[in-house]
Amino acid sequence: MASSSSSSAAAHSTNKPHKVFINHRGVDVKRTFARSLYLRLREKCLTAFLDDKEMQEGYEISSQLADAIRNARVHVAIFSPRYAESHWCLNELLLMLQSRAPIIPIFYGVSPATVRWMLGLYGEALQTHEKKGRHDPNIIEEWRNALHQVANKSGFELEKYNG
Questions:
Q1: Which residues does residue 105 pair with via DSSP β-bridges, in sequence order?
Q2: b/e map of 54-75 (b: 16 or more CB within 10 Å)?
Q3: Are 18 and 69 in contact (CB under 8 A)?
Q4: Which of 104, 49, 107, 47 is closest to 75 using CA atoms?
Q5: Distance between CA 56 and CA 68 in Å, rounded?
Q6: DSSP assignment letter at 45
Q7: DSSP string across 6-30
Q8: Interatomic CA distance for residues 99 and 31, integer angstroms
Q9: Catalytic, out of 57, 60, 85, 92
Q10: Which of 110, 118, 2 minimizes the C-alpha distance to 66?
Q11: What pLDDT score does 16 carry?
Q12: Which residues have C-beta within 8 Å of that of residue 143, sequence separation ≥ 6?
């Protein structure tokens, strides 16, 4: 994924790599839990990457995200009800696993079992990805494996956050 736009984006972003990458489904948690987590990390002097706060205009989105994931020391995956609907979230999860940096799962409005076994909305979302045929079946299988693997990690299970 390294390209000239990728290295240009890195050159124009903050000179320090982000210590924490926050992976989340925007429609579920961007304006509530993810933003609150981002602000708390910043208060503790930890540089964090939250897409709407850290993206550089004029540069390719996917390369900026890949750079941020590769350079982060820790990843936080916020699993929420609509997370698996997003191919962006799922692809970021794959990159997080490939980076081998620690991943801390947060289960926000879903149980670890729902994510691990792709129950309910998670199973439905993956079936929808398959039916639409926009993604290689091998990638969808990688998404399933990644969800299972990360849901098996020790993390935090939260009830719905109230702002």
A1: 77
A2: bbeeebbeebbbbbbbbbbebb
A3: no
A4: 104
A5: 12
A6: T
A7: HHHHHHHS-SSPPSEEEE--HHHHI
A8: 27
A9: 92
A10: 2
A11: 61
A12: 84, 90, 93, 94, 126, 129
> Which pair of structure tokens corresponds to residue 91?
């692809």
For the question of residue 159 being annotated catalytic, the response is: no
Specify whether the CB–CB gap between 147 and 116 falls below 8 A: yes
Q: How far apart, in Å, are the Cα atoms of 9 and each of 14, 23, 25, 70?
A: 10, 19, 23, 14
Half-sphere exposure of 109 (CA within 13 A, CB side): 18
Dist CA 47 CA 68 (whole Å): 11
pTM: 0.86
DSSP class per residue in 77-126: EEE-TTGGG-HHHHHHHHHHHHHT--EEEEEESS-HHHHHTT-HHHHHHH
Please list the ranges in the chain whose pLDDT falls under 70. 1-16, 160-163
